[in-house]
Design brief:
Keywords: Immunoglobulin domain. By secondary structure, the chain is mainly beta. The chain is 0% helix and 47% strand.
Length: 249
């Protein structure tokens, strides 16, 4: 070094040391200053929490997080997502996602198992600490519907046909009813026979034997499956005409 230059050494710098440093030189003639910009780069801080669980299904969980409060002085390049089964506590990598992604659906999970998830941010220097989720039990948020509701309404009676109507289930299982399965059997028989599936709350039942008594049951179905059947206590009789709408509970 010559007499016109000086060196300033700052050891063990950390991210908070980033800033503008002013150097002042003084002699008998006066003073002079020089500003130096110091930028300390490091790995980012952990993504900001808490981690949010946005959706739980029978085989997947969607998680969401916020970007780190400190990117380490460099652009975030990606996020790494990991999962573990709480019973085993062995972490495994799920995916790396782009810097602008803040939510991810973790797939291929086992229903009724308990999992934890964690996310770290990455830049050119390295990876941050992880942000961990609370334990989450994987289960379907939907369930099978309850039985359709009565009373059963009977109209349009002829010798061999009639029209039945019913009410939707009290509980659809959290998802729309897809259709209703209508089954019938003669009272003195054991085997049920499917008449039809319908999206409506009514159905015309044909090909009945005049004077025969029949049991009818109706089963609602949603995306999860068939619920319990609704079966009126009283049988219906083919060809038994009535002047008004008949209700069977």
């Amino acid at each position: 070094e010559d007499e016109w230059s000086s060196t300033v050494a700052i050891y063990s710098v950390e991210r908070p040391d980033t800033g503008v440093y002013t150097i002042t030189a003084s002699n008998a003639a006066g003073t002079a200053t020089c500003n130096l910009n110091l930028k300390v780069i490091d790995k980012p801080s952990a993504p900001q929490g808490p981690m949010r669980i946005k959706e739980i299904n029978s085989d997947s969980v969607t998680i969401e997080w916020n970007k780190p409060s400190d990117d380490g002085g460099l652009d975030i390049s990606s996020y790494q997502i990991e999962r573990c089964n709480v019973g085993k506590m062995i972490w495994s990598k799920v995916a790396d996602v782009d810097h602008d992604v803040s939510a991810y659906s973790v797939q291929k999970l086992h229903e009724d198992a308990e999992y934890m998830f964690r996310v770290c941010a990455q830049n050119a220097v390295g990876a941050s600490d992880f942000l961990d989720s609370e334990p989450v039990t994987v289960k379907c948020r939907y369930h099978k519907p309850s039985a359709p509701q009565g009373p059963l309404q009977i109209t349009g009676v002829t010798d061999t046909s009639l029209t039945i109507a019913w009410l939707p289930p009290f509980d659809n299982g959290g998802i729309a009813i897809e259709d209703y399965c209508v089954e019938i059997k003669e009272v003195d028989k054991k085997a049920w026979r499917k008449i039809s599936s319908t999206k409506d709350l009514h159905l015309k039942v044909s090909d009945l034997k005049k004077g025969s008594s029949y049991d009818i049951r109706i089963i609602a179905r949603n995306h999860v499956g068939y619920g319990k059947p609704y079966q009126p206590d009283e049988p219906i009789v083919a060809g038994k005409r009535i002047s008004e709408k008949k209700l069977i509970s």
